[in-house]
Design brief:
This protein has three domains: about 90 residues, Phosphorylase Kinase, domain 1 (2-Layer Sandwich); about 200 residues, Transferase(Phosphotransferase), domain 1 (Orthogonal Bundle); about 110 residues. It is of the alpha+beta class and about 450 residues long. The protein is built from 15 helices and nine strands. The radius of gyration is 24 Å and the shape is globular. It starts with a strand and ends with a helix.
Length: about 450
């Protein structure tokens, strides 16, 4: 796939959500006003706009991802300059980072699910290292260098994606930045050799992926000692305490053994990405460690995604860094709520958020109902938030309740939803001071 690079992006985006903030940039979900598509864009922070090394690395990230074509890596649409700001445009994944599954208050994912996620990440990292990148077929030799739960996404449909190659090291045509081996990345996922300044090899990512596997299986970071004399005993002790519910037969020994080898102190003792894949596949075939990742995502990931907190972009602390994306946006711009181009639940969620940002959205309820009807897994969070605002206690004077007609419209759009979060929000309105709202809420509950 050829990388589309332009000197200047000539039409605005509408910012739908600011979803992540990294060391160098912000990640936003935007709607391209030219064709109505939702995209993820990575925007460099203002303080780095004059840093030529960071600028070069941003361009390199876009180039190297454009070379890769793998289902477990994000598709990159292009690198643009907009109002003097460099941005990388990527596909939008409707999902959550693995770090959201690592909440200490939440049960750990089933071991089979964790193993399958690691298998798919290993496939992606193997492709990143071995994919030919030049005219002579030289491998890309890409090492991610920042593998951790926050840089792995799982979608509401069970797709797994390795993301954020902002500090990756690789060999590819037109590379600008000079990459050195410095201590970057998350401390609890860094291999021991990083502290020694050794040359970055794929074994570095294998180690970090092993720490990620431990985090998924154990519910906490491993806190493995970097002391060579204490490393192995600490690792063995941590592995012995893992919860392996649902794992049977020899896999109860093989999975912890794989983890220990992935996190070996000596890089030469670690398996390759391909060996990790083969060993997990062997456990899946011989000992029933396989799983239905799509079913897990429907049961666990989708509810977490749909109930995540949403902050209006203009109220987000990072808004000053991304406001330029909307420069030139027509004041009367309206979302294409019923556009034929909407084909996925992700597109629907994006268009819904855009629609709700316009004062006239209640008048579009019939069209919005038709749109949502074809996508039963659409995200109700913006509407649920509105209902909660409408049911706020009277003593919370600082909270201005939404207009009654918007509450009624939200209830109409939520008709037929029976997930726990929506039902709870609707139940909060059955004693609303407006009898029509109270009756509508009760009717919605009675119909479930």
């Amino acid at each position: 796939m050829a990388l589309r690079m332009t000197a200047e992006h000539n039409h605005p985006y509408q910012v739908l959500e600011i979803v992540a903030a990294g060391t160098f940039g912000q990640v936003c979900i935007v709607q391209d006003v030219a064709d109505g598509r939702p995209l993820a864009v990575k925007v460099l922070k203002k303080e780095f706009l004059r840093n030529q090394k960071v600028m070069a690395r941003t361009r390199d990230e876009a180039r190297l991802l454009s070379v890769l074509d793998h289902p477990n890596l994000l598709n990159t649409e292009g690198f643009f300059v907009m109002g003097g700001h460099p941005i990388v445009a990527m596909e939008w994944v409707q999902g959550i980072p693995l770090s959201d599954l690592c909440d200490p208050e939440r049960p750990v994912p089933p071991a089979a699910v964790s193993a399958e996620i690691i298998r798919q990440c290993s496939l992606a990292l193997d492709a990143a290292y071995t994919t030919p990148a030049g005219p002579e077929g030289e491998p890309l030799h890409l090492v991610h260098r920042d593998i951790k739960p926050g840089n792995i996404l799982i979608s509401v449909d069970g797709d797994v994606k390795v993301v954020d190659f902002g500090i990756a090291k690789g060999n590819f045509q037109h590379k600008e930045a000079v990459t050195v081996s410095v201590v970057l990345g998350a401390r609890d996922y860094n291999a021991p050799e990083r502290l020694d300044g050794d040359e970055d090899q794929p074994s570095l990512d294998v180690y970090s992926l092993g720490c990620t596997l431990y985090r998924l299986l154990g519910g906490t970071e491993a806190f493995i000692s970097m002391n060579p004399n204490r490393h192995s005993p600490r690792l063995e002790e941590a592995s012995a305490a893992l919860a392996l519910d649902g794992v049977r037969g020899a896999a109860r020994l093989l999975l912890p053994d794989l983890l220990q080898q992935m996190c070996a102190y000596d890089p030469t003792e670690r398996p390759s990405h391909r060996e990790v894949v083969e060993r997990i596949e062997d456990m899946q075939t011989r000992f029933g460690l396989d799983c239905d990742l799509r079913a897990f995502a429907a049961e666990t990931v989708a509810p977490l995604y749909h109930t995540r907190g949403w902050v209006p972009p203009t109220e987000h602390p990072a808004w000053p860094d991304v406001a330029f994306l909307e420069a030139g946006l027509p004041a009367d711009h309206e979302p294409q709520v019923g556009a034929a181009a909407t084909t996925t639940s992700g597109d629907v969620d994006a268009r819904l958020r855009v629609a709700l940002s316009t004062p006239e959205w209640p008048s579009q309820v019939p069209a919005m109902r038709r749109l949502l009807a074809g996508h039963p897994r659409w995200d109700p969070t913006p509407l649920v938030t509105l209902l909660r605002e409408a049911s706020a206690p009277a003593w919370q004077l600082w909270k201005k309740p939404p207009p009654t007609h918007k509450v009624a419209a939200a209830l109409e759009l939520l008709r037929g939803r029976n997930d726990a979060v929506t039902v709870e929000a609707v139940r909060g309105l059955i004693r609303h001071k407006n009898p029509e709202i109270a009756a509508s809420a009760q009717a919605l509950l009675d119909a479930l």
